[in-house]
Design brief:
Layout (H helix, E strand, L loop, with lengths): L1 E9 L5 H9 L17 E7 L9 E7 L9 H14 L4 E7 L14 H7 L5 H9 L6 E6 L6 H12 L6 E4 L8 H11 L17 H16 L9 E8 L15 E10 L2 H8 L4 H18 L2 E10 L7 H6 L2 H15 L1
Parallel strand pairs: 1-3, 1-4, 4-5, 5-6, 8-9
Antiparallel strand pairs: 2-3, 7-8
Helix pairs in contact: 7-9
Length: about 350
Amino acid sequence: MKSGFVAILGRPNAGKSTLLNALTGEKVAIVTAKPQTTRNRIAGVVEVPAKKKVHPAAQIVFVDTPGVHKPASQLDRRMLQEVHEELETRDVVLVLIDASRRVQLEASGEPGQAHQRKSSNWASEDEFLFSLIKGLDCPVFLVLTKIDLVAKDVLLPLIETLTKQYSFAEVVPVSARKKDGLDILVRKIVDALPVGERFYPSDQYTDQPMRFMVAELIRERILVETGEEVPYASAVVIERFEEPPADEPRKKNAKLPLTRIAAAIYCERDGQKAILIGKGGAKLKEIGTGARKQIESLLGTRVFLELHVIVEPNWRESRPFVDSLDWRRQLEAMTKKEDQRD
C-alpha cells in the first residue's frame, strides 16, 4: 500500500477547495466566488482501491492550504504561515493555476510587469507562488484548473510559459466541476507516493472536527450573503455544540434527533455588525437559515442554531485572537477545560 500527504497550493480562486471536494466526494471545504475563502489547512482523505497492473491501493491525504497572496494583516500572515508549515510535511505538492486567468510572470513577457515591480517590493503573486516551491525536494505537479472554461489551443502556450518557471514532475489539466482529469491526477499521485500505512481510518474523509466544519458553513453563508469588506472582517466561533445522545432510542416515524448550536460572529466595526444583522434582524436570519440547512445535511440531525454578532475592533491584527481561531488550538483549550473538571 502507498500513502502520503499532498499539499494543494495556489492563488486565491484557483479552485483548490473545489478540487478537494471533488476528489473526496464530500464537502470538506467551503467554496465561494470570493477570494481568501480558505483560512486554515484542511485535510481531505481519499482511499484509492488497488487497480490490477495499474497501481496498488493507497491513502492520499490532500491538504488544502490558504490561497497565496500578499499578507496585509496578522490574519494574512497566519494564513501564509499555514502554507509554509504544510510545505514542510508533504510528499507531493500540487501547484494549481487557473487556466482561465491571465498569469503574471516576469519570464512570460506579460505587459505591465515593469510598472508592477516599481510600485511594489513584491513580485506578482504568481511569481511569489513559484518562489514557494523553489528548492522543494519532493515531486511537484502543475495542475491546470477550470479547463472547461478555456479553448484547448490556449492550454499549450500556458503550459509552455509555466514550465519555463519550474521543472514539474507532471502536468495535469483538470476540471473539478466536470470531474475531468481527476482519475489521471490520482493515478499519477499514487505513482509518486512512498509505500506506507494509513494515516486515518479508511472511512474518515477529513481531519476536521464537526464543530469546525459547522463554523465554516456559517462563515460560508456570510461570504455568500454579504459584500464589500464584511466577509473578510468576519470570523465564527462555536460557543455551544450539544449533540443528541448517541444511544437515544428512535421510535418509528419519530423526528430526527436535535443538535443545539450557538455561535458568535465576530466583526471589527459597528457598521459591519449592522450589515450582518440587517433591518429587523433579516440578514442574520438569512445567514442562519442557509447555514442551518447545510449543517443539518452534514450532521444528519435537526439543528437549532443561535447566532449573535460581537464587535472585536481590529481583530485581524490581534495575534492572540487570530491564533484562537485555529481549530487545533480550540481543541487543546477544550481538552484542558475537561481535564480541569475531572
